[in-house]
Specification:
Layout lengths: L8 E4 L5 H11 L3 E6 L16 E2 L2 E2 H6 L4 E4 L5 H11 L4 E4 L5 H4 L4 H7 L4 E6 L14 H8 L19 H24 L3 E6 H8 L1 H9 L22 E4 L4 E4 L4 H8 L12 H4 L1 H12 L4 H8 L6 E3 L3 H5 L2 H4 L4 E5 L5 E5 L23 H8 L2
Parallel strand pairs: 1-2, 1-6, 2-5, 6-7, 7-8
Antiparallel strand pairs: 3-4, 9-10, 10-11, 12-13
Helix pairs in contact: 1-7, 6-8, 7-8
Length: about 375
Amino acid sequence: MSKPLDNILIVDLSQFLSGPSASLRLADLGARVIKIEKPEVGDICRSLYVSNLTIDSESSIFHAINRNKESYAADLKQEEDRKKVLKIIEKADVVMHNFRPGVIEKLGMDYDSVKAVNPSVVYADITGYGKEGPWKNKPGQDLLVQSLSGLTGLSGNADDGPVPVGLAIVDLLAGAHLAQGILACLVRKGINGEGGRVEVSMLESIMEFQFESVTTFYKDGGEPTLRTKSNNAHAYLGAPYGVYKTQDSFMALAMGQIPVLGKLLGCDALLQYEAFESWFTQRDEIKNTIAAHLLTGTTEKWLSILEPADIWCAKVLNWKELMDEEAFKVLEMVQDINLKSGTTFKTTRCPIRINDGLFFSSKGSPKLGEDNDALAAEFGL
């Protein structure tokens, strides 16, 4: 099956997670991605361990995010290597990086330098905090940006203190936004031949991600964010929104009318909260009442009552439980990746479907400099 980005060539100078996550998505959609890496060391993500689990003696996260790419080892501080990379760039549709402001200019790979050899190029970069301002040189690391962005004040309960999201969410959102910008410029390039520069910062990405809460904050006159004392799942939504313990597990309750819940659950104490406003102004006491009541029955009992009544609710599953569900299996969300060494591992596939087609790719991540010889022959380096 042909893919939408077949014949699109991307030269990726980025490392860690944000930039490589963008090029991963574009590779899944058919683009050819040539990853430029520093000799001997390579992408630092090769040794960025999220656990003590390795795949072929390298970080599992590197393999997860750099599959389906080629690797060309080159030292951009060396003139000869830089010229070779620029020769590849001459044929590229997209060039991307995620260096701190000022670094790419020193390497001679800034937008103007690249545009001089490829006038219609789409040039894309990610920074931590933008290229201007007093934070421009701060390290753009996921946890640090989460902490600066206000995001850590939304999860957890009121007395928990700041709670970060347990994923590199800022990196991955910035990568998604970069991919969107690249695709937009590729569309324009296809129409009139004009390239362009796409710029994304991690701070802007995570702030836009919070647009719902930020809008409320401004409309509310800048009032502080208040999480509920228990069962918090959204700092700005009223009761019953949250995750609750039952007699045997946990369940989630989304939006719902409190008196209706009271009737369905057989909890008379909830019937008094008829006013919509009370679901916000008295949400702590409402949630405490719900929490105490749900402990008297099993999750399946409550679901069997609430789901037929079209109340938004769900059992809380871990990965093992989810992956055993037929509802997950039919999605075919997991694929096998094959490394040239013979090692195989499982990971997720591209989540996008086009014309009912799924995008699988079993090609694993490359060894450092694995494609140097082949690329040298192809591009006359």
